[in-house]
Each structure stands twice: as C-alpha cells, then as structure tokens.
C-alpha cells in the first residue's frame, strides 16, 4: 500500500513509523523511571462559583518534567500509562498528593475549597478502590464531600460491574461524581440520568467554538437538561468575557478556564485564597 504512493512517501512513511515507535518506547521507559521516582507534580486550576464568583474548588492536574525529555503533557503520558500498567501507581500518587494538599489548605484556615481529581476507569475497575479512597480521606481528616472525582464517559458506558459498584459506593459515601469532557462521547443525558452523577463538565470544545455554529444552542440545552436532572454544570475552557457572558446568561453553575486562572502550583492557589474577599474573585489579568 505504501509503495503505491511513490518512493519519497514510502521512505518517509517507513522512517516516521520506526521513529515513532522508538520515541514511544523511550517515553514508556522514561515513564517507568518517573513512576519509580515519583517524579510528578500536581498543578491546580481554579473553579469559580458563578453566583458568588468565589474560588470554590480546584482541579488537580498532573505534571511531568522528565530530566531527558523535558515537559511531557498528561494528554500524552496518561494514555500511555493506561496501556502500560502504570495508571494505578500514578493515580494513587495523585490522590494522595491532592488529599495532602487539601489538608494543608484546611489547616491554614483559608476559605474552604474542594479538590477535583481525574480518575481513570482502570482505577475504578479495582475492587478495593472505594475502600482505599475512604481510608485516604480518613487519614487526612477529610470528608468525602471534599473530593470530586472526574470520570470520562468512555469508562462508564461499558457498564462494567466493578466500575458501577465503585461508582455507586463512592457516591453513597458522599464523594461527588463529575462527568468530564461531556459532549465529546456518545452518551445521552437520558442514559446518564441512571448513573449517580452530581456534576456535568461540558467539554471545552463547546465553549471555544461558541460563536461558530449551533454550539450555543446545544450548550443551552445541555445546561437546562442537566439542571432538570438535578446536576450542577461546570464549563471548562472559559477563556474570555464573551464565554463568561453567555454561560452566565444560561445559568451555568461553575466556571473553569484561563480567564480565571491557568493550572498553577499549590502556592499560587494559597496566595489567591489568602487574598480572597468573599464575592471578589475576578478574572485574572491577561
Ligand atoms: P481534563 O480533565 O479535561 O482537564 C482540563 C484540561 O484543559 C487541562 O489540560 C487544562 O490545563 C486545560 N484547560 C483548562 N482551561 C483551559 C482553557 O481555558 N483553555 C484551554 N485551551 N485549555 C484549558 P491538561 O492539564 O493538559 O490535562 C489534559 C488531560 O489529561 C485532562 O483533561 C485529563 O483528562 C488528563 N489528566 C490530567 N491530570 C490527570 C490525572 O491526574 N489523572 C488522570 N487519569 N488524568 C489526568
Ligand atoms: Mg478533568
Ligand atoms: Mg475536562
Ligand atoms: Mg477536556
């Protein structure tokens, strides 16, 4: 097949494949190294209550800077970790670090916030997952309500028994369940209403293309339906004032995006919480 597209292309095609798999193998090897050395960091991105405009939660986002490869984005290494048996180790580290940091904020008597943690469906497949999360929360003297777990629909839609068991049990114990990247997959709201989901996170592709197509109408319909199902709605990717105006008019509950702050080290969040007067959290200067 590749031969028919001409010599030059054939050459390029085979070379780039070889290069790709070599790079991939190197990445997996470095990732193993990073897992062994816990060479990760957590950044936190503000989540703003649209009524009070206070910072009410942060999303924990994992960061990895390899000594040889430099910065590798989670969009790149999380799927690799899932394929190569490393996501549990990384996921456990993330949960532990997020809980530890939240406890630090709590004991500093700052305005109280929640922390949202991204969970891979592979983690939810583990029979002991709920028990371990509860033990972790207890160890850091946190309530289940302090933690939001962000899941994507891909892992949920298959309806695996163990995944469902964990999901229901976590929800029953008081952990908030958020469905991440909503709108990018195939699930309908009518399917989701049967699952214990508290929060719908609308994928940022809807917000970023707001003015271009029917996304505004779709967004408005999603928010209305989510509310009628008793869910809160978070918009991710809120980048400018026009996004904010639209989402406010549509009654979106929570906002996340560069307009309010990029993912940043814990100290930046501490500083913001220290300076936050109720109701005065404003978009950060550009
Ligand atoms: P996500 O959970 O949907 O996280 C939101 C992503 O959107 C983050 O990318 C964030 O930096 C980015 N973002 C936030 N606001 C804006 C905005 O206004 N404009 C634009 N253009 N982007 C914005 P990030 O940190 O690169 O993470 C990418 C994905 O990697 C996450 O998507 C999540 O699926 C995954 N991920 C990150 N950390 C973890 C983790 O600890 N565990 C797991 N399982 N997955 C993680
Ligand atoms: Mg997320
Ligand atoms: Mg998301
Ligand atoms: Mg997303």
From TrEMBL:
Q: Name one GO cellular component term.
A: membrane
Answer yes or no on keyword Transmembrane helix: yes
- Write out the GO MF terms: cyclic-guanylate-specific phosphodiesterase activity
Tell me the superkingdom of the source: Bacteria
Biological process annotations from GO: cellular response to nitric oxide; signal transduction
Q: Which reaction does it catalyse?
A: 3',3'-c-di-GMP + H2O = 5'-phosphoguanylyl(3'->5')guanosine + H(+)
What UniProt keywords apply to this chain's record, in alphabetical order? c-di-GMP, Membrane, Transmembrane, Transmembrane helix
| Names of the cofactor(s) | Mg(2+)
Uppermost EC category: hydrolase
Q: What's its EC?
A: 3.1.4.52
What sequence ranges are listed for the domain EAL?
24-277
> Protein name, please?
cyclic-guanylate-specific phosphodiesterase
Organism the protein comes from: Oceanisphaera psychrotolerans
